[in-house]
Design a protein that fits this description.
4-stranded antiparallel beta sheet
């Protein structure tokens, strides 16, 4: 997402979030905050982390009230600590208060994803492996959460069902018939040459069979021990393809050993489906 704009997808999410929060109106501000009162609010982190969703939060304030003055000082991907000033908002106190929770919901959630991703990336920084996200994202928020993974230093896996064929055990209705698999691969290669092909292997025997196939870009090594992963890497030999991705049982205390096996990627669904939000808040002063 470009720094200066908000995509149609994100704008829709902002509109939905504001609609569910405002409903028929902000009764608290309407009845307890003077109409002409102006305020100054600083967005700041309460804990260390990595920012993501800064532009989305800024757009929330602008959407609620285009007359608000919004100045952004720190950006997506930057590491922050308590006391840092991410953003300054000035203008109608009612408007700032009305936008506050929705803006924080976006930036706290996305910064949490970026922060956790950065922790995984650092844990394997001594290897050549890269951290991948998955499709285990909040419905509707995939573009935002995958952007947050990038801000944390991770790498995006496929965006959806359309941009990579990922053949898992549930798709394999052929009882290990590699001849049929090769026919499917050839047909996909012919009809959709730009789509990558990935096969999931649960055993080293499957890895061996898949390595004999032509046209496979990636092999997913599912729930294998570090020792099994090393064997899979050895089976590939001096070839640079297919690329090998480890998945399953990946946590901060296991990811280093998994990456040290020599795989190219480690996919971590946890960074999007279970990342804790980063604590950020608004500090107000009345003008």
């Amino acid at each position: 997402m470009p720094a200066e704009t908000v995509s149609d997808n994100v704008e829709t999410l902002i509109n939905l979030a504001l609609a569910e929060d405002f409903g028929s109106g902000d009764v608290t501000s309407t009845y307890f905050v003077l109409e002409h009162l102006t305020a100054r609010a600083i967005l700041t982190p309460r804990k260390k982390g990595v920012l993501s969703g800064v532009n989305v939060a800024a757009e929330v304030f602008r959407k609620v009230d285009p007359t608000l003055k919004v100045e952004v000082y720190l950006h997506d991907g930057e590491a922050v600590a308590p006391g840092a000033v991410v953003m300054l908002i000035e203008g109608s106190a009612r408007s700032i208060l009305g936008a506050e929770r929705t803006a924080l919901n976006f930036i706290q959630r996305l910064s949490g994803v970026a922060t956790l991703t950065r922790q995984y990336v650092k844990a394997i920084s001594h290897t050549s492996a890269r951290i991948l996200d998955t499709r285990k994202t909040t419905p509707g928020y995939r573009l935002l959460e995958k952007a947050a993974v990038l801000h944390g230093g991770g790498t995006n896996h496929r965006m959806g069902l359309y941009d990579r064929a990922m053949v898992k055990d549930n798709h394999l209705m052929t009882d290990g018939n590699t001849e049929h698999l090769q026919e499917c691969i050839n047909r996909l290669r012919q009809e959709k040459p730009g789509v990558e092909i990935q096969l999931e292997a649960d055993t080293l025997e499957q890895v061996g069979n898949f390595l004999k196939l032509e046209g496979v870009d990636h092999i997913l090594l599912d729930n294998m021990t570090p020792e099994m992963l090393k064997q899979a890497v050895a089976m590939r030999g001096g070839r640079t393809s297919p690329l090998l991705e480890a998945s399953g049982g990946v946590h901060l205390d296991t990811v280093a050993a998994i990456a040290e096996s020599g795989v190219d990627f480690v996919s971590v669904g946890y960074v999007t489906h279970s990342a804790p939000s980063l604590d950020l808040g608004l500090d107000f002063s009345v003008e």
